[in-house]
Amino acid sequence: MTAPVSHTPRKLIDGMGRTIVNLRISVTDRCNFRCTYCMPENNVEFMERSKLLTFEELTRIATIVSKMGISRLRITGGEPLMRKDLPSLIQMLNGINGIEDIAMTTNAFFLKDQAEALWKAGLKRLNVSLDALDPEKFRDVNRKDCLSEVLNGLEAAKKAGFKSIKINAVAMRNFSETEIMSLVDMGRTEGFEMRFIEFMPLDSDQVWAREKVLFGSEIIELIGQKYDLVPIDNSREIGPASEFTFADGKGKIGIITAVSNPFCDHCNRIRMTADGTLRTCLFSTQETNLKTLLREGASDEEIDQAITDAVMLKEPGHKINLDSFERPKRAMHAIGG
Fold first, then answer.
1. Mind listing the pLDDT tens digit for each residue in 117-126?
2. CB 137 within 8 A of CB 175
3. CA dist., res. 77 & res. 110, Å (int)
């Protein structure tokens, strides 16, 4: 009797030996905020709607990559909740065999009205961008006076059933120092995991400078003045953050040291912009046009090969700290957070 053949699941591995399991999908470059580290205040040029991938096209790409070993999806923007009928897309993606986790990054402004529908559609995790709890500082960085709407959105997400809610705060020198402890205390009280992200050179106004970055080591030192933190071993081998639990057992935080101590060696993600271009690094200067393949009748096998070829050339690292660093042509809102 012949023994059954064992099939090893397909893995998507880049030229550095890193296994790619995470695809970030931007669904729009539009946003109702104008955050200083992301977008200009005025005269923003957005993509024509006809250039955005349809839900059916997004689902086809997700189906293809699910057979290549990608099991985790994150929906991003711009502000993804500005894309009409987003719960329908979540439901479509949730039905793909092999997709084990769907998350979303949002500013939470529209969550109050959409949280329940998103949860029911199969979205399980949220990352909410929130840099300040002081209303004036919130307005200064977001250029919008709507802190209460964001906090209401967070409350609605908790009521809808979301158990995993992370708060992302961009850490900027001479701004974040007075906000960090308020955010940490809110996270501990409300059950949110705080994540502090070093300010990166992805702003449309191109005012980024290294001296404007509040470094992760400084954040840890500041928090450590009030709370004892316990490092979580190997956390950066799973995701981008160095994670810490509070010694009293009440929650944890993450620090993403994208500038001072990058996690590139363990990067397991690729990105797709809202107009269907594949980026193998947040700071890529090269893109692979998947939309043209989709709309010109390419087979799944041809799209698979294009993705495989692009991933094989995935950058070893982002070069922010090198003289040879080159800013990407797209700002953050047009890449996908």
1. 999 999 999 9
2. yes
3. 13
